[in-house]
Queue: 2 jobs
Job 1
Amino acid sequence: QLLLKLKVDYKQMTGQDYKAGCPPSENLIVSNNGPAADDCDGEDLVDPWNVSASSTKGVDYDKLIVRFGSSKIDKELLERIEKVSGQRAHHFLRRGIFFSHRDMHQILDAYEKHKSFYLYTGRGPSSEAMHVGHLIPFIFTKWLQDVFDIPLVVQMTDDEKYLWKDLTLEECHRFTVENAKDIIACGFDVNKTFIFSDLDYMGASPQFYRNVVKVQKHVTFNQVKGIFGFTDSDCIGKISFPAIQAAPSFSSSFPQIFGGKKDVPCLIPCAIDQDPYFRMTRDVAPRIGLLKPALLHSTFFPALQGAQTKMSASDPNSSIFLTDTPKQIKNKINKHAFSGGKDTVEEHRKYGGNTEVDVSFLYLTFFLEDDEKLEKIKEDYTSGALLTGELKKILIETLQPMIAQHQERRKQVTDEMVQQFMTPRPLNYKF
Amino acid sequence: QLLLKLKVDYKQMTGQDYKAGCPPSENLIVSNNGPAADDCDGEDLVDPWNVSASSTKGVDYDKLIVRFGSSKIDKELLERIEKVSGQRAHHFLRRGIFFSHRDMHQILDAYEKHKSFYLYTGRGPSSEAMHVGHLIPFIFTKWLQDVFDIPLVVQMTDDEKYLWKDLTLEECHRFTVENAKDIIACGFDVNKTFIFSDLDYMGASPQFYRNVVKVQKHVTFNQVKGIFGFTDSDCIGKISFPAIQAAPSFSSSFPQIFGGKKDVPCLIPCAIDQDPYFRMTRDVAPRIGLLKPALLHSTFFPALQGAQTKMSASDPNSSIFLTDTPKQIKNKINKHAFSGGKDTVEEHRKYGGNTEVDVSFLYLTFFLEDDEKLEKIKEDYTSGALLTGELKKILIETLQPMIAQHQERRKQVTDEMVQQFMTPRPLNYKF
């Protein structure tokens, strides 16, 4: 009778019948981390559609690690990445921009034993315009691809955008192609990179659909309600979509790349707001006989107005777009970038500025690669030697050439190149 | 304020936000016909997974027409079908086995104006073994294909069976191929017929997936809950599956057949338990700019034990299988076919038998094409001149050669033929 009661309780908590040997472990954690939980306790709100912090310093990422049940990227892991890759860690890693992970040690264990893995990241193409924040996962993913010499799949969730936004299928697909050009402009190796539109690839790969259905069989509405906060009046497309974002985590979804191998480990670099999808994926994986993907999580790229929210493509003044002219970049930063400086020059010289909330400084941590220069700027701003206007000027002069170069590279991306990247085909990789 | 209240009420009833010009018409009817409604008022239970009648005469089909909001196939429609096709109506039509329809007059209107339509039917491949009841929609569909000279698509819902049953993807796909052989053995024209596995075709046709997503965007969980009785602990695959059964109702799902035309009307011959899927489809169609499919509904093929339930592939004694030997057919009918005769020969001679509940007689209405012979049997059985054993003998002698011939034709179906029928390709048709 006790056993029976336990089974009933189990079902209420997990939405699944109890099966011996199928622990829902991570999933239980998930149920306590849904948007509902976020709403009531006044903590930072972080899910795939919303990010808002309760503090001006932005989201408390240490708390998020505890809530999401992931692990901090510590000094030991950093050193291991450097040892295994034989390269100095990317400044996104050194500066804690990629700050959290799941199972990264297992990926490195396998790689040390000459077992390849692959990278999976993605983009929701909700408009033509991408902003600098959208580049973060791609810049980092390119670095991973280069240092580990491994294949990469990039999912363009045009079906998701169709389901969530007031857009037609044709618009979403067009945004996929336009955004793919920006992604290709990041310098990915066409011999190691497959970019795919869900709308196209679902209809081009029976193996991909098979994995989608497998995931869909093993996740209940109760579970996606707990994880994503879906309600009874959400459309059935939204409710089943998480399975489509899950499927690329399994190498068998890409037989053209992995020759039908089911056991090539997957590493997903993404912003931490995407973690709910992969907590779900990791919960399902062992129940369908597949490997759990590993993850590397980044912080959010803050809006110009401050770190309480992330950049949004729908508010033009919150973001620096990849299409902005040098003049627009200059004006936006001067006008909108939240300053951590004091109200008057006198006060600033006397008390110094606050780099923890200063958006211009935060942006430099993303894009100024020179550690010494950055350290010097921090010292000078904190001491008051550097004024807000001067700090903004440094950022402007960092971003203007970076974006101009991106525009130049993007111009050179032809339709044929896009076609090539988006054609299902074998890729070259090390092992 | 009244308007606001109306909108709230509307949302509660339909699960959708109110939009001017998008009537939920049929859908509202649907909400009152879900399994929940069936459960409480003790009426016949009819949904895609359950059929059970409260009377020994079987389901009350007239009541079902009212409940489902379809139309009776009346004398006028019968005569019109004969006029337009230039053929005597099939005995399934003459005898009320196909008894209900939606928009069949519109199909005939279009056909008279030399506008083609296409047929769509399907099968859920839950095992290798099909029984005689499974042939009904295919026998009738073949007749429609022949008299109207039009293309046919046959959906094998192997993904559905994977989601609902304790089967692997490989098993479901194998059942698809095995069942396809039985379907091909019904005599379909390979130049006019496309049979597809969902597991394969979803991954082979971006246009099919696009229609699935369109449907998925326009149906809420509330709606499928009302229509199909899904609950929060159902997997997300079941919840979104109805969109996959809906999509073949739209000619744009088959660009290889219709060259991208969105406006070729679709006629679906099916057993009435599949109607919930198409009520949903017809509700969605105008909201995604596509045509509502028309339907022809059949009654259920009764189990040997009586008309209260339909034949089931999982209970071997409830069905005559297409693989049964002449001896098995004889034994099953003699042993299990529910009799409408009296307890003793004396009583039977005196009072006569009841053809309304006699399963052997019911089966003859399906498979004995000769109207006069059937009428004579009815008279003799009702008068008591014909004994139950003699009636069973007539059925046995009707089914044995029919099934032997089916087995013979099935043996001649090669793997290459199956391959041919299941390859996406252009089809030949009249207009």
Job 2
Amino acid sequence: MLRTHTCGQLRKEHVGTEVTLCGWVENKRDHGGAVFIDLRDRYGLTQVVLGPPEADQTQIDKAGRVANESVILVRGKVANRLEGKTNEKLATGEIEVRCPELEVLNACQTPPFTPGQTDLPGEDLRLKYRFLDLRRPEMQRALVLRSKIIKTMRDYFAEHQFIDVETPILGRSTPEGARDYLVPSRVHPGHFYALPQSPQLYKQILMVAGFDRYVQVAKCFRDEDLRADRQPEFTQLDLEMSFVDADDIMGLIDGLVAKTAKEVLGKDVSLPLPRLTYDEAMRRFGHDAPDLRFGMEIVDVTEVAKKTEFRVFRATADAGNFVRAIRAPGGAEKYSRRQIDELTEFVKEYGAKGLAWFRVEEDGTLWSPVSKNFDASHLEEIKSLLQGEPGDLLLFLADSWDVTCKGLYALRKRLGAELKLYDPDALHCSWVTEFPMFERDEESGRWVAMHHPFTAPLASDLEKLESDPQACRAQAYDLVINGSEAGGGTIRIHDQKTQSKVFELLGIDEQTAEDRFGFLLNALRFGAPPHGGIALGVDRWVMLFAGLENIREVIAFPKTQKASDLMTEAPGVVDNDQLTELHLRTLAAKQPSATS
Amino acid sequence: MLRTHTCGQLRKEHVGTEVTLCGWVENKRDHGGAVFIDLRDRYGLTQVVLGPPEADQTQIDKAGRVANESVILVRGKVANRLEGKTNEKLATGEIEVRCPELEVLNACQTPPFTPGQTDLPGEDLRLKYRFLDLRRPEMQRALVLRSKIIKTMRDYFAEHQFIDVETPILGRSTPEGARDYLVPSRVHPGHFYALPQSPQLYKQILMVAGFDRYVQVAKCFRDEDLRADRQPEFTQLDLEMSFVDADDIMGLIDGLVAKTAKEVLGKDVSLPLPRLTYDEAMRRFGHDAPDLRFGMEIVDVTEVAKKTEFRVFRATADAGNFVRAIRAPGGAEKYSRRQIDELTEFVKEYGAKGLAWFRVEEDGTLWSPVSKNFDASHLEEIKSLLQGEPGDLLLFLADSWDVTCKGLYALRKRLGAELKLYDPDALHCSWVTEFPMFERDEESGRWVAMHHPFTAPLASDLEKLESDPQACRAQAYDLVINGSEAGGGTIRIHDQKTQSKVFELLGIDEQTAEDRFGFLLNALRFGAPPHGGIALGVDRWVMLFAGLENIREVIAFPKTQKASDLMTEAPGVVDNDQLTELHLRTLAAKQPSATS
């Protein structure tokens, strides 16, 4: 090693030691003829001094000229800092290294921005110069955390006898689910590989092959139009087990959550993690990934609404729809009439026609512009259902089940944050179970699998597969962290007949099923064990554990929302010869230039 | 869990316990009205008995009808086997489980082959039914070993403060090196991503970003015509370090080799691993990845050859070429005249024009059909140089340096195996260092980088970059295990001027360099530390550690030599709509059918 120590390592006990340090010039200060350099590496920051008597004027001048972010090597002796000059915030803050000379290993040109600057430039510039952006302590912390989380996961599953098996990246396209990324074959003209959307079928095959417990940190790919928190390639912790039920998988992941929270954040998580059924989650929170860091549960007041004179409530209730509400504690003072109007506009984005509201007054009565339409006893009943206290704001949607779910979910999420109802550092993990097997595709009116077509129904709902698909629940479970889906899995169908029946329900005829999934159906015929698994979103986990909100901050080299890598300028133009070899011609209007 | 124990877990101390087992029916035997089933899972084999008094005749009959490879569940009591019926070869061989009934979880149709059968079908059938093939104990062992080796590697680097960073799979095509796999972009018409041949540039960027120590088990891709031991996608343990020299990297990997050999095979490896320079390797073994499990080094006898009357030797030596030889211990008896003729044909494949040979007779004299052309003193000199002993066979090539290297390397490899000069279970690891920076491309006559264009020259050879590129040696090191290249790395160029000079030498002009590697050149301008790294071939490591010779035996779902996955039938045909969305048209003669 060129260095004897890192820039985070030296302490008082090293005083007097001759050391060699390497690192980046974070800062330098010229004080009374001596140059003080903050020398930085991944491990920390050490103060390096070039001054008399150790250094002569030539070296001091040289140090004065070194540009920030240059890479230098210094040899010197560790010394106590002068009294009053120590820095308690710095692990190395009691010492400095006094050097006779410095060697510039690589001078830095004037960079477009420096990692230390507080007013960061726009994300595009940071992505173009990612090697500078990645020097920022926040990015280093996030990626170190990511490495730790993944290591913790791998260790945990190794302790539980899982085998890490790599599944192919060059696979077969199946026109299910999202759009595939395709890879043209040179050897087989007109044929294409597809990058995997998940290792789903391979891991099921591994169970049929008797591997019993499989795990992989797997790269997955989806050619979708990108939302803020999606990337064309993403990482999932993927696992599968044989001879298990849903409880076994959830219990296993409970242990992982607790271990990761403890080892990575030093936090205790009490087990088992709470479990909600899908129905309960929709009823209490209006969503299948509720944020349980705070209460503010949805309350159904339809029965009272029916009895009131308020036209909107009564008409809704009479039509078989719902009046549901949430209570914003302390919201009466926090939200002015104007702000409540703004909340009304907000819920309209989710299909609501309006937002009714009541304030709980000091004397405990409810007041609202529409309160004259309510009997005092009905108001009392509503207050009691919502457990309203003086100062609370009660907010109501009267609409279809779906709209009340969506609207109140969004409202709850917004108010929870605005009213600071939770500790932003808290980590709340839970399960949502017993999802419906199917949902209707709104465009085609056909059944689609809510998870994927390999999901097993609850044993008790097996006969509903044919008699009442809508009511058929799946052996499915999603892990929710702080209101984000952080993983999802199912017990799979392990007999070929049920699998064929599900394909049929999904409108996949026998021939199509054989063409697309023949090898899976085959595998199910030759001794498939009962099995199930889960996939955890690694990028999402890291983001939530790090308390970050932009997924690109936890990925070393992310793509933009247009799926570009601004540093390498991928995707790029290729030679026509390369396309010819792949038996392809581009239909792009004209061959774009390499820099476009 | 459906089961209480695995099939490899029960021992004498469990006798009397009620257990539930799940697994595959490996075998069954009908003995005197009772059915004995060998129940198998990943962990072992347990004998299960359905017979009186526990089971009634209906259950016994049912057991008798269960097809091999079906998945069953049994509940029963652990019992001692009858005296004389224990099986010492089996970990569970002292007990059996006596069951009142069995439940068939999934019946197996008649499979095309069974994992237990000794006469395996051809590899194509095994790959098509990979879920059966992977049940073979050899495959399970290989993949468990693979998982262990990778875990050992990851643990080792975590202990050494490496950060595991994922680099992109969707990258930028650079027309260096092998052929890229391309991925058309939907969002950017006419633009393509490329799958990485290695994370080389990303890991250098990570060093420029100050990550100091990076590691990744990385998937890499090359669209090459496949040789027996190559796959279109392969796995490498990829790492990079800052502020190091070649010794640091080799020392680090020495530790990894020792740890892996110890933990995975229980073998001790003494460190440091031997190191040879490239020149020495070529001189002593004729190859840059010599098998050091045995001696049989190449000896240069050109000086003696010059003095003899043997025309071939003298002409070769006079022309400035070489006469080099190896000694096959005990080869005189082993190889008949006819077999030596066969060896002559063998070396001709490597460009040799013939093969001269001598037998060391009982009395210590050398004999050959051409020995009359040699003075006794010259023969004595040759014998002495080769340290010939009675019974040895001495084999000579007289040719250019290259041909003698290639021919004698091949001959040594063949004879080493045929004469059983080494323990096939032995593991011999070593380093070859100081490779030439450049070699001439035979077709174009241009310089090409022997490793890659980011390799730094030896500091002492820096000035030869311009004055004598041929003599310029690189800071490069290859890890060799049992005569196979198992890894290779270099110290990289960290200053932009040297990098530009190397590009220039390789005929990459300034504009092209900026277009292709602009972001790297940029990174080198903004504070790049000295750095270097290595990539280890994980598939190769597993193959060598497992003592296997076919790389497809250490990969769960490998491709054939035509880059096909026979199980999923990838690559496959895709809808024209998918191509249109990607702005592409296929030039394949006609759209092939989905089953071709």
